[in-house]
Amino acid sequence: MKYRFLGGLALTALVAGLSAPAMAFEGKSVKAANCDYGGKIASIEATSEFEVVFTMCKPDPAFEAKAAFTPFGIQPEEHIMSAGADGSIIDHPIGTGPFKLEAWNRGDSVIMTRNDDYWGDKPAFEKLVIRWNDSGAGRLTELRSGTVDQITNLSPDDFDSVKNDPSLQFIPVANPNTLYLAMTNTFTPFDNVKVRQAIAMGIDRERIVKNFYPEGSEVASHFTPCSLPNACEGEDWYEFNPEKARALLAEAGYPNGFDTTIYYRDVFRGYLPEPGVVAVEFQTQLRDNLGINANVEVMESGAFIDASTSGKLDGFYLLGWGADYPHVTNFLDYHFTKGTVQFGHDIPAIYEPLLKASTIADPAEAAPLYAEANNAIREYVPMVPIAHGASASAALATLQNAHFRPFGAPRFEIDNPGKDTLVFMQNAEPISLYCADETDGESLAVCQQMVEPLLKYGIDSGDIYPGLATGCTANEDSTVWTCTLRQGVKFHDGSSFDANDVVVSWGAGIDASSPYHKGNTGSFDYYSYLWDGLMNAE
How far apart are CA 223 and CA 345, in angstroms? Predict the structure, then answer.
């Protein structure tokens, strides 16, 4: 275990030939100068070897749901302090998870081996290989040939053929998701709210869902899927009305439309099946319904995520969201809270009620605030919500207990694969393996196997279970959360897990002044958005 000597006392005892006193644990902490920075977290302190206290600037009843999310995984403090400082941490994760990294073969695969010192139930197979293919048809071909054991994001056109194939199993994915057509209001003509409202009315969203999405998908009435409490408070989205849309464009000074670009990444998602085809459909509708001429431009995945989330795309772009944890804040706060730049200037009419609602535990009490925020999203149109897509995974019929979790990254708790190596195929290559600073699902899927958070989601639901913490309890108003840590846990490098690992791991993400606040982009989006900002930022 990790201890720190207290001054010269232990050294003096050893020199004197006496038995050294017990070495004492010296807990670390990370703190904001004060709560004026606007974020939720005031401090994180290791109050004992196996206890961490999170003191909040304001109540956060969703703390446990967030703390179970993959980007808040724990790595050894020494590893963070060395690999985090020099940036090599993006390639070399060290966690406590059921698998540890053997190799990242860029362009081909990530290979992980079983962690035989794992504190929980050990995997039933020795190696986990994650590969990728951006084509739904290509993934299914590999599954049918037996070169992979499970695939993600089955193409909608293949649902029935998989259901009718006795060699395969069809696995519905109950993950709430949203596709949206986004605009950034710092670029002309999207700085004009009438232009944005015209686009909201000028897209036939029902046609898109009917023609390109599988059965069970829905036209979005609100940004957040209605399966989450408080998601659909407030008015429904605009009805399709191209005549009124063209009139609004004319009022805004664009009677003949304008020229622009539709950006997208060629990565299949449950919220966006076959993205290239859907992008062309938007191009066609914008031209025919609104007189807007848009070129379609595909971007590399990492560059697209960086540019879109930092508000640097000057045209339309297709992006979406799949639920990470079961709370409306995961959709609304991430995208629209104060300080977000994805859609350009943030909008007080949206973020002010969201900030208030995020401190309220009772859904009924928070409902009017979410109605206010949803109505403001409808009025100001930072984006157009299009669809909540039905999606599915598929696996070989011989794979026992194959599943796909509705929340969080996948876990491969397979009872008996009948082989030493399990191969999973996803949509794309991970961007990096330091998921404190990533948001893409492909990176999170790999990180989840190796680096664990304090808590974890259930296999079949969003219920929260113990992870590296045996539990986290709140005071009466949810402003202090105390997490009791699991003892006897070893990291992949053989070091022992304790409270300082939690403080340093979280500190690297939440503390903008930390020398370890480095990653792939350095934005640490989930730390910033889900906790309302980074502490100690200049």
Answer: 19
Range of the structural domain that residue 271 is part of: 177-384
Residue position matching structure tokens 């279970």: 465
The sign one gets for the Cα dihedral 237, 243, 246, 247 is negative
Strands of 203-357, DSSP E? 218-219, 259-265, 293-299, 316-322
The answer to whether the beta carbons of residues 95 and 79 sit under 8 Å apart is no
Are 41 and 61 a contacting pair, CB within 8 Å?
no
* CA-closest candidate to residue 267, choices 439, 441, 129: 441
Q: Are residues 267 and 367 in the same domain?
A: yes
% of the chain beyond a pLDDT of 70? 96
Start-to-end Cα distance in the chain: 36
Distance CA 323, CA 410 (A): 13
CB 72 within 8 A of CB 506: yes
3-state helix, strand, coil in the chain (%, to 5): 30, 20, 45
509 by DSSP, 3-state: which?
helix
Predicted pLDDT at 244: 98
Q: Tell whether the model's pLDDT for residue 458 goes beyond 90.
A: no
State the helix-helix crossing angle for 329-336 and 363-380, rounded to 10 degrees.
Answer: 40
Q: Is 444 helix (H, G, I), strand (E, B) or coil?
A: helix
Q: What is the mean pLDDT of residues 247-270?
A: 95
Please state whether beta strands 259-265 and 316-322 pair in parallel, antiparallel, or not at all (unpaired): parallel
Global pTM exceeds 0.85: no
Sign of the dihedral through C-alpha 191, 196, 197, 202 = positive
24-38 tens-digit pLDDT = 899 999 999 999 999
Do 507 and 405 belong together in one domain? no
Residue 21 CB neighbour total at 10 angstroms:
12
Q: Tell which residue, 66, 28, 94, has the closest CA to residue 503.
A: 28
Q: Is the pLDDT of residue 179 over 60?
A: yes
Residue 508, helix vs strand vs coil: helix
Distance from the Cα of residue 371 to its chain's centroid = 24
Pairing of strands 51-56, 480-485: antiparallel
Does 189 sit behind a cis peptide bond, omega within 30 degrees of 0 on the bond before it? yes
Question: What count of Cα atoms within 13 Å lies in the side-chain half-sphere of residue 171?
Answer: 24
Distance CA(274)–CA(283), nearest Å, equals 15
- Smallest CA-to-CA distance from 177 within 77, 272, 280, 38 is with 272
Which of 351, 384, 417 terminates a domain? The answer is 384
Strand, helix or coil at 395? strand
The HSE-up count of residue 430 (CA atoms within 13 Å, CB side) is 25
Q: What pLDDT, on the 0 to 100 scale, is given for residue 215?
A: 87
What pLDDT score was predicted for residue 23? 67
If one counts the domains in the chain, the total is: 3
Residues composing the chain: 538
Both 240 and 339 in one domain: the answer is: yes
